[in-house]
Amino acid sequence: MNLTLRASGLDQLFACNGSLLAQSFVSRPDTEEDSATEGSLLHYLIAKRLVLELGATAPDGLTPPHLPKGYKLPAFSAWIVDWGVQVVKDFVPSDWTLMVEVGLAYEYALPRPVWIPLAELSDVPVGAIRRTRADGTEEVLVTHFTLSGHLDVLAMSPDGKRSLGLDWKTGVVGADPAEQNWQASGYDTLVATAWPDIEDAEFKLCQPRIDSDATGIERISSSRLNGDELRRMTDVIRENVNRALENRYETNSGQKQCRYCALALTRPWDCPSMAAELSFMKANLTPETLAALRAMPRDGALGDFVISGRTLTAPIKAATELLHERLDTVGHVDADCGTRITRTTRPGDYEVPDKQAFYGVLKVVLPEEADRVECSTFGMGEIKKRIAVTRGIVQKTVKPMEPSAEKVFDAELRPLVNQQQSRILIFS
Ligand code: SF4
Fold first, then answer.
1. Which secondary-structure segment (H or E) carries 112?
2. Angstrom distance (rounded) from CA 328 to CA 409
3. Average model confidence (pLDDT) for the chain?
């Protein structure tokens, strides 16, 4: 267990105290996902533009991310770089000091030092007090923890009393708004420690891919703390970390904390809370109980079903991939329940890697345009992105006079489409 805690991991730690210790026993799976690569590149490109165009400094240097060979930023994601630069122009006054990629780490005292077995610690604080337990093993008195964080953008007012931090979340999964997000509080705490004169710390969580109307999640959300609140927030974080260390053997599952947990993504069956979720689903998700629920809905039980199912979605996806890897190696797996798992294959969905080449041949095979139109499907999101790229305008804007792809779409194409309503569950 590492006593250096990342601000971005505080939400998980406070929701599931056991996650810190539990995750230390497994390796985080390598992520070669395109979204992770794309996210690193977008962060880098925004930072580079802020340095070149707005004179931002990069105190820790600016290093291009390591990209898979031949990787290029998808053309339809390039708008996010413009969007990020524009957000900085919109929210950071021009006379403020602007920094990018700011790494901060400080040590904080625990209000109540905690005795922790030596075997649970990956790094033992220098000079820590030790004692021998009755069983002959050693334990260590942990008095401090380190909080670290990496701000994508940090701006400071000329008098050094105000700060504005920005964090880009370039994925499609919405994060909690800044005022409900411990990551924001962690960053504010670090900034207030680094610059003790700060009296007003603001933080913005920027999620360009989130459609606020469809998801109910704000695209740009803000939190703001004044001097006293900042100091109290530092104490709240110290107290919560203290409680988490005292309660480190207790796990608590939930969508938010389990989604990125290394244990959930590698060996969810070894997490007691995940196992309990599975038992709950197995014991209750029977045709009879579902029929009973349908006949006389009991909202509390219905909600529990859905939350358990969603909590298990990401771990089951990861475990299924792991099972495929085992099947690649051993051919079959015998589950403890007695079921033998093997595999067969069948043709899956088609992909068109080169759309231009495919369409060129399609024109030969189906010479009539009307025939080609009938077998085509249209992605409205992609159309809007292409309108933005070809016309050199932003995708979306709140400024009444500014042209945008959304406005072009609404005027020209929306009358020709029927839009279904998405139903999105919000868990709070
Ligand atoms: S899988 Fe979920 S409940 Fe289990 S340790 Fe990780 S975050 Fe906690």
1. strand 97-117
2. 47
3. 89
CA pair distance 16, 8, nearest whole angstrom: 14
Max mean pLDDT among 340-344, 408-412, 418-422 falls in 408-412
Rounded to whole angstroms, the Cα distance separating 262 from 23 reads 6
- Ligand 1 pocket member 257 (CB < 6 A): yes
Which of the four pLDDT bands, split at 50, 70 and 90, describes residue 34?
Answer: low
Bridge-based pairing state of the strands 200-206 and 220-226: antiparallel
Residues 6+ apart with CB under 8 A from 39: 170, 171
- pTM recorded for the entire structure: 0.75
Q: Please, are residues 327 and 342 in contact by the beta-carbon 8 Å criterion?
A: yes
In short, whether 278's Cβ falls inside 6 Å of ligand 1 is: no
Those residues whose C-beta lies under 8 Å from the C-beta of residue 215, and which sit 6 or more positions away, are 174, 424
Distance in angstroms between the alpha carbons of the first and the last residue of the chain: 29
Cα atoms in the Cβ-side hemisphere of radius 13 Å centred on 296: 1
Tokens of 417: 């489409």
The beta-strand segments (E) located in 118-197 are: 130-132, 138-156, 162-168
Angle between helices 79-91 and 34-54 (to 10 degrees): 50
d(CA 190, CA 211): 30
DSSP 395: S
Q: Which atom of ligand 1 is nearest to the CA of 311?
A: 2
- Kindly give the distance from the C-alpha atom of residue 254 to the centroid of ligand 1, in angstroms, as a whole number: 8
Under a CB-based contact definition with an 8 Å cutoff, are residues 110 and 142 in contact?
yes
* CA–CA separation, 28 and 261 (whole Å): 8
